[in-house]
Here is the input.
Amino acid sequence: MLYYLFDWLHGQNFPGAGLFHYISFRAVCALALSFLITLLAGRRVIEILRKKTRGEQERDLGLPGQENKAATPKMGGILIIISLLIPVLLFNKLNNIYVLLMIFTTLWLGALGFVDDYIKCVKHNKDGISEKTKLLGQIVLGIVVGVVMYFHPAVGIKENYSLPKQVTTSDEMFTISKTDANISPAKQPATPAVHSTKTTIPFIKNHEFNYAWFTRWMGDKDGKWSFLFYIPIIVFILTAVSNGANLTDGMDGLVTGVSVPIALGIAALAYVSGNVVFADYLNIMYIPNISELVVFGSALVGALIGFYWWNCYPAKVFMGDVGSLTLGGIIAVSCIIIRKELLIPLLCGVFLIEACSVLIQRAYFKYTKKKTGVGKRVFIMTPLHHHYQKQAVPEQPVIFSRKGKPTLHESTITQRMILVSIVCVVLAIITLKIR
Here is the structure.
């Protein structure tokens, strides 16, 4: 909203109003404001949540220090959503289809997680909403995102463009020439954006993969039916990342700290994808109007850092499903929008490891129980972060039993996983130049 106000003031020659044409300025403002909102409103929100969720009973998992967390309020993800959306509404262009899609994602998954947490924490029903209902909500969102990305006229990329020798424009970012690093994508290049199902793929020479490939064997040379594959893939990606974030949310500050470098990486990828010079230099597709996602991503970073203030060990509040489901969905949809979804296994490496540990544990337990009558485990406990908190009991058959090894404090596990996340994000960005 402030963008339109200052855009009008700039037209009236109001001094300094032109700063709002700079993506970098609006991104910094969004980050700072979201951080301040989370920091200043945090204590009040925590007190409200503590009163509303009083009396909730925790399931005993036998984890060290679990009894000390019984009184810690849940549903802190509400604070993240509020501190994210306020800067987005103030500093983003609200007529941008990508921004609107991100706002819809945040509200949809926020509502889904809120209902689940409300039933668990306020109504004291441990079951919450059913897994099928939760999955259905994620599938519906995935279909909406897939349909918008495939059919909406404002969604497209620019191909086969060439840079002119000299460009001068002050719209969006800076007044520049071709040799400047921060060239504006607003009026550059002049070729029209086209609908495409292409995405960026790492380690390949041309850095692109077209989902239309799946239907070409059916004689669909133009890829008109590629949405039959594209939309289900989008649904799978969204549900996988959203649930991966949800599984990671099990320690003080874990999913919050792991997500900060991921959000920074997405903001950086959005910037280079929306900047014609960087896109040309990195040999990746140029996506018009995607730079607005930099502002959204910066607001998310500020909200996460502010929430980490209250969520780090010892946590004053937990984000709950309203936070973890929303956070995973935001990350997934952001990667889909900037057409970097095939980088998610590396970009969200910690989420992938946590999710795979659960899948491996369940599959191996069912296999061994069916074959021998006694279910065996690969890890002491999953998700993986709990494996390092516990020692296997003698009667518990576990492949990686950690016998003779000391258990790790949860703050140690959290900090190490944050470091792993940072390395994964750096490697994901580096892949843009490895081919």
In short: The chain has a mean pLDDT of 86. The CA atoms of residues 265 and 426 lie 8 Å apart.
